[in-house]
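Design request, tokens follow.
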């Protein structure tokens, strides 16, 4: 989507129905409503178009005023084996971009069912610098440079061409990263320069694992923006005179909130959740958060507990608010948000339609529909996942639930 956005001034994203995907490709992991939510949240999309036909026709794209259709360099076929884009290709209105390097749905399903941990990153900075990872020194350095460039690319604004979100990394002791015992400020290092908070904006902090960046995470972030907009509207933020004043002072209008998202390390998440969570490593999860239009800044390797020392030493100063969602994916033995509560800056968003959609829910969807996904993988020439691997996943998930129950009992 980033590559497509860079080719024009607007990007309309067609989204197929669940039924069309099932007929032509196989079962979906996300519902149509969830997938529309994801597209709407992408900062490079201009408009999402649900129920787009699986075979793209000229009347369809002309109806929406689109000059070209953009797709990756992989072949996409319908249920009869014919090219889904044959009509727009024949008309010379088809553009090809390189397939985004990295993981695919196939990779993620494999991680879920095989319970592998080879995707974990011990130190993101070490990996980016070529000090950690796989291969020779030269290969690690090259891989790190490519990863750095992708972070820069994903931090661009809605045009995909100019600086957008600022990116930071945090470093502190292992204890400060994993639990609430150590009270330390740590240190922040800027990774990518971007847009700073504007006059009058409230500084907002959120944090999480954001594993398999789902509609649950997206709706939480959207709700944070909505709450801040509602509060600011009561104080005249959207009055014509206020808007004119902002434009006169900065050359542009902007929203009332500057939202910072802290993303936890792989080992921190696994410490609390176990099995082989997170399914996506910190680099992959960070990119997902970076592309979200509801975010203004990302802090990699943020501590699990935002202590007072940490919050008062954020790059933009003490936040005006710390938000948390209505659900918790982690089996905690304590409240990580004691400090922001005591500081009077803690807020929770209301319950919403996607509040139960998290990494665990997505894994369970895959497990329940394993036979269908197996058939999909075989159709794509992928090696099937064995029954033993599936049973192992189920056993580990059950063990995790037992530990979670004990943790909740200890906390209560």
């Amino acid at each position: 989507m980033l590559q497509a956005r860079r080719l024009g001034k607007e990007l309309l994203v067609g989204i197929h129905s669940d039924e069309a995907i099932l007929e032509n490709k196989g079962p979906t992991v996300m519902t149509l409503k969830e997938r529309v939510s994801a597209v709407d949240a992408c900062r490079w999309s201009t408009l999402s178009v649900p129920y787009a036909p699986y075979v793209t026709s000229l009347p369809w794209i002309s109806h929406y005023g689109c000059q070209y259709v953009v797709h990756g360099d992989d072949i996409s076929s319908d249920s009869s084996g014919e090219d889904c884009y044959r009509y727009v290709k024949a008309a010379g209105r088809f553009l090809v971009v390189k397939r985004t390097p990295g993981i695919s749905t196939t990779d993620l399903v494999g991680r879920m069912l095989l319970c592998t941990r080879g995707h974990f990153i011990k130190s993101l900075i070490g990996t980016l610098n070529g000090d950690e990872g796989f291969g020779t020194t030269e290969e690690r350095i090259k891989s790190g440079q490519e990863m750095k460039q992708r972070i820069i690319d994903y931090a661009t604004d809605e045009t995909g061409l100019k600086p957008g979100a600022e990116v930071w990394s945090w470093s502190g002791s292992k204890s400060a990263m994993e639990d609430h015992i150590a009270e330390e400020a740590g240190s922040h290092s800027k990774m990518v320069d971007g847009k700073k908070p504007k006059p009058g904006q409230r500084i907002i902090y959120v944090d999480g694992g954001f594993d398999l960046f789902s509609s649950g995470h997206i709706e939480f972030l959207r709700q944070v923006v909505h709450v801040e907009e509602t509060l600011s509207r009561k104080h005249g933020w959207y009055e014509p005179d206020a808007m004119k004043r902002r434009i006169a002072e900065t050359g542009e209008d902007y929203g009332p909130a500057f939202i910072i998202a802290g993303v936890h390390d792989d080992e921190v998440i696994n410490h609390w959740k176990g099995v082989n969570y997170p399914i996506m490593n910190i680099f992959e999860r960070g990119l997902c958060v970076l592309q979200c239009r509801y975010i203004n800044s990302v802090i990699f390797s943020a501590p699990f507990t935002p202590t007072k020392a940490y919050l008062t030493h954020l790059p933009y100063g003490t936040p005006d608010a710390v938000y948390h969602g209505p659900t918790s994916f982690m089996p905690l033995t304590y409240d990580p948000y004691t400090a922001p509560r005591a500081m009077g800056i803690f807020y929770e968003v209301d319950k919403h339609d996607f509040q139960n959609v998290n990494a665990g829910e997505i894994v369970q969807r895959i497990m329940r529909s394993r036979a269908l996904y197996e058939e999909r993988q075989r159709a794509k020439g992928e090696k099937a996942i064995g029954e033993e691997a599936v049973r192992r996943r189920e056993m580990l998930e059950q063990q995790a639930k037992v530990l979670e129950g004990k943790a909740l009992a200890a906390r209560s």
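Comment from the thread starter after seeing the answer: thanks! The radius of gyration is 22 Å.
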